[in-house]
Automatic annotation (TrEMBL):
Domain Siroheme decarboxylase NirL-like HTH: 11-57
Residues annotated as domain Siroheme decarboxylase AsnC-like ligand binding: 68-152
A Pfam family of this chain: NirdL-like_HTH
Protein family according to the UniProt entry: Belongs to the Ahb/Nir family.
Keyword Lyase (UniProt): yes
E.C. designation(s): 4.1.1.111
Uppermost EC category: lyase
UniProt keyword list: Lyase
GO molecular function: lyase activity
Protein name: siroheme decarboxylase
Pathway linked to the protein: Porphyrin-containing compound metabolism
Reaction catalysis annotation: siroheme + 2 H(+) = 12,18-didecarboxysiroheme + 2 CO2
Source organism superkingdom: Bacteria
Length: 162
């Protein structure tokens, strides 16, 4: 049984803000902090503390790829030597057409451990991008899984009842 994690009222407000629309301004954290009446410094300190305490596991953007014009998208899975996962993933994540890059455990029948979401305007462009990633990392073993249907993109929402 796991221990209950305490989240105070101000942290709950911060979590609610981080789950919503991220402000498209020069200083987004300052704008979010102002919404709840604290400084940007305190806002960021509390976020960093919650990450360190494992109250927040990850933060990320949701790309609505079709809305920005990408018509071909694929999850490209890579078989990367375990000792190179961090290096290769860091390099792949830097590509402007890769929105997600993460590692997963291998299974007996699935040797792939690094996953990249590639966005393009055609399958050919996605193949070209995967080729660029392969050349940049010297990793060739991959499978490209193309999007057939876009599902509604939603995430868990916490502390919304308050």
């Amino acid at each position: 049984m796991s221990e209950a994690i305490e989240v105070d009222a101000l942290d709950r407000k911060i979590i609610r803000l981080l789950q919503g629309q991220f402000p498209i301004v020069a200083e987004p954290y300052k704008a979010l902090a102002a919404e709840i009446g604290i400084s940007e410094e305190e806002f960021l300190q509390r976020v960093e503390r919650m990450i360190a305490e494992k109250k927040i596991r990850k933060m990320g953007a949701v790309l609505r790829h079709r809305e920005v014009g990408f018509t071909s998208n694929c999850l490209c899975v890579w078989n990367v030597p375990d000792v190179r996962v961090d290096e290769v993933a860091r390099r792949m994540a830097q590509h402007e057409r890769v929105s997600h890059c993460y590692d997963r455990s291998r299974t007996a029948d699935w040797p792939y451990n690094v996953y990249t979401m590639i966005h393009g305007f055609s399958r050919e462009e996605c193949e070209k991008i995967a080729g660029e990633l392969a050349a940049a990392t010297n990793i060739e073993d991959r499978v490209m899984l193309y999007t057939k249907k876009e599902w509604k993109k939603t995430s868990m929402q916490y502390f919304m009842e308050e």
